[in-house]
Amino acid sequence: MNNDGWVKTTCAYCGVGCGVEAKPKSNGLLDIRGDKAHPSNYGKLCTKGIALGDTVITDGRQLTPVLRRKVATQSTDQPLSWDEATNLVADKFRDTIEQYGPDSVAFYVSGQLLTEDYYVANKLMKGFIGSGNIDSNSRLCMASSVVGHKRAFGSDTVPIVYEDLELAELVVITGSNLAWCHPVLFQRLKVAKQNNPSLTIVVIDPRRTATCELADLHLPIQPGSDVSLFNGLLHYLSESGKLDQHYIDHFTEGFDSALSLAAEQKDTLSETGLSQQQLDDFYALFANNDKTITIYSQGVNQSSSGSDKVNSILNCHLATARIGKPGMGPFSVTGQPNAMGGREVGALANTLAAHMEFGNKRQHTLIEEFWGTDNLATKPGLKAIDLFDAMEEGKIKAIWVMATNPMVSLPNSDKIRSALEKCPFVVVSDCIKNTETAKLADVVLPAQGWSEKSGTVTNSERRISRQRRILPSPGMAKPDWWIVSQVAQKMGYEEAFQYLHEGQIFNEYARMTTLDNEDGKQRDLCLIGMTKLDDKGYSALTPQQWPVDTLQSDLSHRRLFSDGRFYTDSTKAQFIATKYQPPLLTPCEQTPILLNSGRTRDQWHTMSRTGLSPQLGTHTPEPYVSVHPATAEQVGLEQGAIAQISRNTTSIQMRVHIDSGIEPGQAFVPIHWNGATASNAKACSLISAYTDPLSGQPEFKQTPVSISPWSKRSEALVISHHPINFDGIDYWVQQKLEAGYLYRLASKSGAMKLIIQLTEKLASEGNKTLTYSADENGSLHRKAFMTSAGIQSAFVVKDCIDDDDLDWLAQLYQARLDETIELQFMSADA
Ligand SMILES: Nc1nc2c(c(=O)[nH]1)N[C@H]1C(S)=C(S)[C@@H](COP(=O)(O)OP(=O)(O)OC[C@H]3O[C@@H](n4cnc5c(=O)[nH]c(N)nc54)[C@H](O)[C@@H]3O)O[C@H]1N2
Ligand SMILES: Nc1nc2c(c(=O)[nH]1)N[C@H]1C(S)=C(S)[C@@H](COP(=O)(O)OP(=O)(O)OC[C@H]3O[C@@H](n4cnc5c(=O)[nH]c(N)nc54)[C@H](O)[C@@H]3O)O[C@H]1N2
Ligand code: SF4
Ligand SMILES: [Mo]
């Protein structure tokens, strides 16, 4: 802590990993500012980072462990002590393992966990339970990049440092909406371009996104065609004499077969849907700029050919020796705050810990000795999609979900529901009470959240930073590492899980990275310089970029592969021959529109934290589907109407947003809204679980759907001090306000029915109501529910709501109760 009460920590959100300073306020919230000394952001923050202080409210938190019993559609919660809860979980897991074997249980974890949490969960499952069945939501996020890196480099390594963005002459951004998803990197790029007007930026994305603001060239490629584009580039580089033959000969293998497959490709134009001019422009830029960075994210990873997309990019960088040098390199920007940390400690089903691998006998023995176990898993476990499939088939009998919400974020939501319902024992550790997944749990365990928990995270440039405890935890919430360790001890593994604080876990992990690797020659993930950290050192730890041979006191920038040495058996980088494959599903007559899904600027995933900030709610208050004007006209959609998006027998509803930045025949929806914040607006309800065969990452970005108008007959706005359950109303969306919640509703029934429904839902809100009805048909109806303390809730029902209604409602809510308010209504009923 500084003298003036500011505590240094790291942002809760994206993989940029910005340093944050936070200071408690007298109202229990936090003042927030960027940490100027943090080398990843130098004091800058984006809208989400700035709003962190608003999100530490305790609304909706899970406060105690509970046993949740579901009877029909109702569930009742029985509070448990921590001792009872951890005994119960340990007993159930142990009994299940005894009866059905270790592969009948599983953990599904998350890049929202800290490295210490992740490490302990992986140690318990792989090291002591003896199963590989621990997988992470990173499977949905970074798995294709992991495969791509390992195939090319022999290690899961991001070679660049952020500083390279400022040193580059060409930045290619493909499948990444950097402006919204990694805003501080985008800001750094913006400043770099101001300082160096010759810096050229190319954006490759089927949509024209906010990131295109900086683009000198935007290539709206055909969805899924990245391999074709980059194969074409490899061939072009060869034809135009731009290969670095010396580098290819000395530091790589497999070039000839990669080039010959790329050269065989004849249909680059039709596959990518680009013009010859667009291709020529991009290829010439790439060929003529040595200092090139290629940034890529989910438009690349989340694909049935995600691994090949990644390698087709890496091939072009290897062929031009643009790796490991200032201003050059491929850059897989990570999604979550600690996606990287999870990959490091091995919380994906197909790796061991500390970048050690299944199938390597020596490493297997080293880990068994280090952990003092004879039960280390010998084979990879089930990847996320396969895991939930196995659960649905009854093969997984106990699952523990930590810090992720698979009911919202995994494809095929109906199947996920059915899998969780069939699983005999479901444990969910979360901060929030009523996530869609927690509703299906047998036991819910209250976890500490950001600002309460303490440990480390690793960002997209391999920089390890501390998240620090600033506020007390509400209720009985505990750190995830503590919860897992308690269960592990009660399962009989007392000795291996005796941690008193997170620093001890970090120390163990740091030592593990040095096994057979004190000089970092076997594995680049080597933290030998951190193994001597004592409690004080851990507590005061400043950001460290791995590999860490000695503790870094300066702002170090450590690029990898500068010496042309890789972690493959031959120490040479590998070219991978890639061939374009279209997305697995193609539009047809019933489902003619290709649905893309992704993020909005101010919401984070399932909105459990960002949804609490009134400020963040204003950017995009309602879920929307973007379509091109021509598509809108074709299917009869108007701006601001509600659309129904359907596939097979499932439909969702979202507001229509007409956008000429999206191609005709395509649509885009945000991933954030779900049962906690909207009636029926979950993208994953429509998306099938088609995956990349190597990475297991789902094809989230290309799903054929049909879109049609959703005809409503009436609409309403409701404002209330606390959340209201609108089950039974056809369409609703919740938005957090300073003093409560705003709901936008719509109904297939006429206004009268909606008025009756709302009056019933809100009846308990006040003992006095004020009513205004414009005419007998009820085409405008306003009602407020009051107590002596003032207006508790109010609604407007109309055939078609407009902005005036919203203004009126907002004013009413904020106004003091006096005669002028009463005069706005026609009658008052006590
Ligand atoms: N505001 C905000 N920021 C976030 C997050 C958040 O929830 N909200 N989440 C974080 C996480 S976990 C992640 S993983 C990252 C994700 O960050 P991004 O990957 O940047 O975000 P997305 O919106 O999922 O998708 C990126 C882009 O890929 C494009 N795309 C779709 N198909 C293709 C294709 O075939 N080829 C190409 N080249 N592009 C395609 C989409 O149109 C979209 O604009 O964001 C992180 N940052
Ligand atoms: N259609 C579609 N689906 C997608 C994607 C897409 O682009 N399109 N993107 C995918 C990607 S890249 C990702 S990363 C996933 C994200 O999907 P999820 O992981 O499901 O999303 P989150 O909302 O981040 O879920 C985190 C949960 O953990 C809780 N939590 C936060 N901190 C802690 C903690 O410290 N401990 C515990 N125990 N709980 C905590 C939060 O309250 C929240 O409920 O979605 C994937 N799904
Ligand atoms: S860029 Fe990412 S890490 Fe930085 S403040 Fe924004 S959300 Fe947080
Ligand atoms: Mo992600």
UniProtKB/TrEMBL annotation:
User: Which residues, if any, are the signal sequence?
Assistant: none
Which UniProt keywords are listed? Answer: 4Fe-4S, Iron, Iron-sulfur, Metal-binding, Molybdenum, Nitrate assimilation, Oxidoreductase
- Co-factor requirement: [4Fe-4S] cluster; Mo-bis(molybdopterin guanine dinucleotide)
Gene Ontology molecular functions: 4 iron, 4 sulfur cluster binding; metal ion binding; molybdopterin cofactor binding; oxidoreductase activity
- Any Pfam family from its record, for instance, is Molybdop_Fe4S4
Q: Which GO terms describe its biological process?
A: cellular respiration; nitrate assimilation
Q: Which InterPro entries match?
A: Asp_de-COase-like_dom_sf, CT_Nitrate-R-NapA-like, MoPterin_dinucl-bd_dom, Mopterin_OxRdtase, Mopterin_OxRdtase_4Fe-4S_dom, MopterinOxRdtase_cofactor_BS, Prok_molybdopt-oxidoreductase
Q: Where is the 4Fe-4S Mo/W bis-MGD-type domain?
A: 4-60
For the keyword Transcription regulation, the answer is no
* Record PROSITE patterns: 4FE4S_MOW_BIS_MGD, MOLYBDOPTERIN_PROK_1
Q: Does the keyword Metal-binding apply?
A: yes
The source's superkingdom equals Bacteria
Q: Can you tell me which family this protein belongs to?
A: Belongs to the prokaryotic molybdopterin-containing oxidoreductase family. NasA/NapA/NarB subfamily.
What's this protein's name? Assimilatory nitrate reductase catalytic subunit
Species, as recorded: Vibrio hangzhouensis
